[in-house]
Amino acid sequence: MAAPKADTVFKTQDNDGGVSSIMSLPVRAKDLATLLGGELVGNPDVPLSTLGSVEDGSPETLTFIRSSNYAKFWADSACGCALVTQDIEVPGHNQDTRALIFVKDADEAMVMVLEAVNPKRARPEPGIHSSAVIDPDAKIDPSAAIGPGCTIGAGTSIGAGVVLMPNITIGINASIGKKTILEPGVVIEDRCIIGDRCHIGANCVIGADGFGYLPANELRPSVKVPQIGIVELGNDIELGACVTIDRAKFGATTIGDRTKIDNQVHVAHNCVVGTDTLIAGRTTLGGSVVIGDFAMIGGAAVLNDQSVVGKHAKVAGGAVVLEKVPDGETYVGTPAMPARQALLNYSAFRDLASFVRKVEKRLKKLESE
Length: 369
What we know:
Layout: E1 27-28, H1 29-36, E2 39-42, E3 47-48, E4 50-51, E5 61-65, H2 68-71, E6 81-85, E7 99-103, H3 106-117, E8 127-128, E9 133-134, E10 139-140, E11 145-146, E12 151-152, E13 157-158, E14 163-164, E15 169-170, E16 175-176, E17 181-182, E18 187-188, E19 193-194, E20 199-200, E21 205-208, E22 213-214, E23 223-224, E24 230-233, E25 238-239, E26 244-246, E27 252-255, E28 260-261, E29 266-267, E30 272-273, E31 278-279, E32 284-285, E33 290-291, E34 296-297, E35 302-303, E36 308-309, E37 314-315, E38 320-321, E39 324-325, E40 330-332, E41 337-338, H4 339-350, H5 352-368
Parallel strand pairs: 4-5, 5-6, 6-7, 8-11, 9-12, 10-13, 11-14, 12-15, 13-16, 14-17, 15-18, 16-19, 17-20, 18-21, 20-25, 21-26, 24-27, 25-28, 26-29, 27-30, 28-31, 29-32, 30-33, 31-34, 32-35, 33-36, 34-37, 35-38, 36-39, 37-40
Antiparallel strand pairs: 1-3, 2-7, 22-23, 40-41
C-alpha cells in the first residue's frame, strides 16, 4: 500500500518550551491523527489504550513504523494502529479493522505521544523542606523546590523553578540555572556551574577532583596536583545516573548545550565536550579530551588522554581512541581506526587460523620435496 503525503507533525509547546499534554489514553485513531496532523488510512474508530512495538501488542496497541524493515512486520502484527513515516510502503494493511497514521517522522510523532501520556515523576512543591540545611548566604529563588535532606553552601545560587530531590549536596559559590532538576543523591561541588533546564541523574558527582599526581620516584612518594578549576555545564544537558565529571586542574571542564550523557560515564579533568553530543553508558574520557559538536560515542568506549573526536564523528561501542578521529568519520576497534579499515582487518583476522594451516601444509610439502 502506498503511503500518502502527510502534513508536518503537530507539536504544541507550553510556556517553558516543552510539549504540552494534549491527549490521554485511551484515544481513537482519528482523534490521534488530528492531534498529530497526520493522515489516517483505515478504521478511524480503532481504540488505543497502550503503546508497544510492532512485533508485540494487542488490537488496542499503538506502535510506530520508521522504515521498511519494520513495515514488513505489520501484516502479522496484532497492533491496532501504527504511526508511519510518510512515503513508506506498508504491505498487508487491513483498512477495515486497523489504522495507519502517516506523519512526517514516526519517531518524532511517537515522542509527542509519549510526552503527552507521560505520568511524570512526583516532585516536591516549591519551597524549602524543613530538614534542608541552607547557608544564610545562599540565594534561593522562591519558586525553587528544595527536597528533604538537601545541603546548600554559602554563596550558591539556585534559579527559578529548580527542583532538588532528596539528599542533594551543593557546595559553596555554585550556580544552578533555572528549571534544572537534580535527582536524589547528586553532589555539586564548590564553584561549579549548571545551566538552565538541565536534568542531572541520581548520584551524579559534578566537580570531583581530577586525577592529577606527580608519579612517585626513588626520592619521594606520589604528589597530588591541586585541582583548582571548575565544571561548567551548558543549557538543556541531560546526565544519566552515576555520571562523574571531574573539575579542571585550572580553567573548566566544559559540556556544551543539549549534550546527553548516559549512565556511569566518567569525564576527566579539563575535557571539552561540544554541543548536541551523545555519549553512551560506561564510556571513559581521559584528561583533556576534546569532543566536537554533534559527535556520537558508543557504549564503553575509551578516549585516551588528549585525544580528539571531531564534529559529527562517531566512535563505536568498545572502541579505544588513542589519537584523533577526524570530522565526520566513523572509527571502530582497538585501537580505533576508520570503520572500513577495521572491518577489513577483522575479516582477515577471522581467516587467520585457516591461512596459517594452509601455509604450514605448504611448508611441510616443500620441505619434503
